[in-house]
Amino acid sequence: MMRSWGKTSLLVVGCVLSIVLAYWQGGFAAWYLGICLTLIWIQAGLFYVFALNGLTVSRQLSGEVFVSGEDVAITLQIGHRTFLPLPWMIIKDNWVHEGSGVKLTYSKLVFPWFRSAFILHYKMTGLMRGVYRFAGFEAVTGDLFGFAVRKAYRDDLHRCVVYPRPDSLTGSGMTFQSEDGDVSTIRGPKADTPLISGVRDYVSGDPYHRIHWKSTARLSRLMTKDPEQASSAKRMLLLDAAPAAGPAEAAQPLLEKGVALAAGFFEAAAGGRESCGFASSSSTCRRIAPTIRPDLTLAYEVLASVGGKPAISFPDLVRKEAAALPLDTSMLCITSTLDLALVRAIADSGTKRRSVHVIYVHARPSLSVAEREGASQLQAVGCSFTEVPHPVRLWPKQGGVADATA
């Protein structure tokens, strides 16, 4: 396309005036000016018609699946069949993060001249959880004098999925608490004993260290912890995808922390003999029913899709899952909103018959008076409670685009 009709009009007017002047007055200068302007006009027209003909673009990514915080390397191969030299070209490769809508653009000025093909390398750094979708390629080139500018667009189907990076549970010290005792979710070097989720009658020969004294006192007979029943233990993770009840800028970082915690619990369950399900208030997220063998790939795919507008409020999700799940399935609720509606939903979920644990993710240095009162109310209805501070200095930041062409 012509850069502007104003420049084109001036060029045409200059050509006509210089030729008229040469005919009327003659002289070398007038003829020289007229011929030069005419040649510039002709080359601008040829450039407009033929530049970027047969433009081809191929793109290769270093992978299709990544973990948040990693980088993806991208190789661009660009070719064209233009017989005219291309003095300059601006390349733009666009990507969009579907969850946040953030647009990442790789832009580079190259000087192809007579080269009909060249290769560029760049990388997207600090990937965020979610899906990055290719949003179009644009090439802009022009003649030496700036009278003709040609643009070309190409589209393609490219995407890369970014899984959440599982959060380390050892630093949080979080435990599942049920009426049969505390069940640690930590999988560190010292946690080499099997998780205990069931008890049975004592049998002669059972080790004394496996006697479950709480059940023994309640039932007035010896009960022992049964590690074999641990494989049938069912956990259900419930994630609150609604914005946190704090500053607006804290909503996404706190959600990312909650997703990372959920990924950490899935990893811990897969490393042991636990089943683990998942449900979220997000409208774009599917539900995973508790299974004997957790599928980490499926779990990470689902966690990568968490986001968007909530389809249901978190208290309603708690009630819905509590009504659908069997009583031997414990619930782990990860949220950034601690209010009366959640307390009522937890109370309605039957905490006297099932284990319910709430993990409260917040951005404050310590809990406020109202939050401490909410935690006390949760514990009063039989729910265990853990707070996970996530200060501003730990919030993830969206990466950018860096040129990697040697």
TrEMBL record:
Pfam families (alphabetical): DUF58 (PF01882)
Annotated DUF58 domain residues: 199-311
Keyword check for Transmembrane helix: yes
InterPro entries: DUF58
Protein name, as recorded: DUF58 domain-containing protein
Keywords: Membrane, Transmembrane, Transmembrane helix
Organism: Paenibacillus alginolyticus
Bilayer-crossing regions: 32-52
